[in-house]
């Protein structure tokens, strides 16, 4: 199976090339990514616990889903595709903002991403893909904010960055 390619971008989010995903993470090259946040009518956010088999951040809690856009795929198309692949459902999404972050991991890989934040609404429970997702839960946004302060080691780096710097874009 051919390794998935990521879209290399400059700081203006202009595509400058493609690179295999692992190589991009080994070289810490800036590439396009997205993070999806799904809320229900009780203003709870669906969190995902990453599968134990993930090559970085295994078993840490994160937003509903996240990944990388494919060449020629819009942000919204990518978000809907990955929601289906990881969580077993699709809903309408709205782009809220984007930001650049760089986070090195203990395994020598580095996330250096221009991350597009998308928000959607869904009132049912997902049918998770156990190869991608260990577990899920719905949590009140204020409870998440407080839990990140109390238990930062159980959350992914990008999730903590988003909650710290872009809270106003995702709160409902």
- Determine the mean pLDDT: 93
Give a quick account of the main beta sheet: strands, pairing sense, barrel closure: 4 strands, mixed
Helices and strands, in order, run as: EEHEEEEHEEEHHH
What is the spatial order of strands in the main beta sheet? 6-3-8-7
Specify Rg, calculated over alpha carbons. 15 Å
Q: What distance separates the N and C termini?
A: 40 Å
Residue share in β-strands = 35-45%
What is the general shape?
globular
Q: What portion of residues is helical?
A: 25-40%
Low-confidence stretches: none
User: What's the count of strands?
Assistant: 9
Number of helices: 5
Structural class from helices and strands?
alpha+beta
Q: What is the topology?
A:
Blueprint lengths: L4 E5 L5 E6 H7 L3 E9 L4 E7 L10 E2 L2 E3 L7 H13 L5 E12 L5 E12 L11 E8 H10 L6 H9 L1 H4 L2
């Amino acid at each position: 199976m051919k390794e998935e390619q990521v879209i290399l971008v400059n700081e203006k989010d202009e595509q400058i090339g493609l690179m295999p995903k692992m190589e991009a993470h080994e070289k810490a090259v800036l590439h396009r990514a997205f993070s999806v946040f799904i809320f229900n009518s009780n203003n709870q956010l669906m969190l995902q616990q990453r599968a134990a088999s993930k090559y970085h951040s295994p078993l840490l809690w994160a937003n509903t889903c996240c990944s990388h856009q494919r060449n020629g795929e819009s942000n919204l198309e990518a978000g809907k595709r990955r929601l289906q692949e990881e969580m077993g459902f699709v809903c309408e999404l709205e782009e809220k903002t984007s930001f650049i972050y760089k986070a090195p991991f203990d395994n020598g890989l580095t996330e250096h991403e221009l991350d597009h934040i998308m928000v959607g609404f869904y009132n049912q429970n997902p049918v998770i893909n156990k190869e991608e997702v260990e577990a899920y839960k719905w949590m009140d946004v204020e409870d998440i904010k407080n839990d990140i302060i109390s238990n930062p080691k159980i959350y992914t780096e990008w999730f903590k960055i988003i909650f710290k710097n872009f809270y106003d874009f995702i709160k409902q």
